[in-house]
Recover the amino acids of this structure.
């Protein structure tokens, strides 16, 4: 089973993915969860690429970033997700190609059709049809609070995409809502406590 948790920065995707994985493991499932951006990866190659993609101060643009995110997306898919799915296990992805479409396409100005074509060439059909998918939404005020907590808890400071101007963040937020509507994706208000959101997520996924 392939599960995707999407949404803007600090909406609680990783927290919810971790709890959902624990819940499913307690029920006897074998679960692998990872972030498509490569954050927290123990794979040295993926970790290097993720540093280059959004932690570097070097002059790279959104077009280059499309390619770098795609490298990590594909590498983790072929090394982790594909073998696990073939074994009949559960895979939980934090983010998928929608993140590139939204951050680098809608907000960054890269051609959305280019992003779509590149992903269709590289990723298999099944990747685009997860069994469960949700977009977490959150008020900007609460999201800012969580970004601050995240910076302290996880030491995530000065990252290129998190420090883009407010205009960029606004475009990302609007694009998530637009794309979710157009693609008929389920949205979940992530504004409650961690446990409340987890409860709602399990209900939504019927798990
Ligand atoms: N429901 C919640 N209520 C309060 N704080 C939360 C909640 N969910 C997560 N947090 C906190 O908010 C911060 C961001 O959460 P998390 O890292 O899970 O978000 P994320 O969407 O994966 O972020 P990113 O996309 O930036 O990696 C963390 O410090 C986490 O502990
Ligand atoms: C996968 C992906 C991510 N991003 C952005 C979103 C965040 O600001 C950073 C790091 O991701 P994380 O989930 O917070 O670890 O990268 C992006 O712009 N495009 C993508 O495809």
């Amino acid at each position: 089973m392939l599960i995707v948790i999407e949404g803007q920065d600090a909406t609680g995707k990783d927290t919810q993915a971790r709890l959902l994985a624990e819940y499913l493991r307690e029920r006897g499932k074998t679960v692998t969860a990872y972030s498509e951006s490569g954050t927290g990866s123990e794979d040295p190659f993926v970790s290097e690429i993720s540093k280059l993609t959004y932690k570097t101060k070097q002059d790279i643009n959104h077009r280059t970033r499309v390619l770098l995110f795609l490298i990590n997306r594909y590498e983790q898919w072929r090394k982790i997700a594909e073998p696990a799915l073939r074994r009949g296990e559960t895979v939980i992805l934090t983010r998928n190609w929608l993140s590139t479409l939204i951050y680098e396409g809608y907000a960054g100005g890269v051609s959305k059709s280019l992003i779509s074509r590149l992903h269709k060439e590289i990723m298999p059909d099944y990747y685009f049809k997860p069994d469960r998918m949700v977009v977490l939404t959150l008020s900007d005020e609460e999201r800012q609070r969580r970004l601050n907590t995240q910076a302290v808890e996880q030491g995530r400071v000065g990252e290129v995409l998190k420090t883009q101007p407010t205009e960029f963040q606004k475009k990302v937020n609007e694009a998530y809502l637009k794309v979710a509507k157009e693609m008929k994706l389920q949205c979940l208000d992530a504004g409650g406590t961690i446990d409340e959101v987890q409860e709602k997520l399990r209900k939504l996924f019927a798990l």
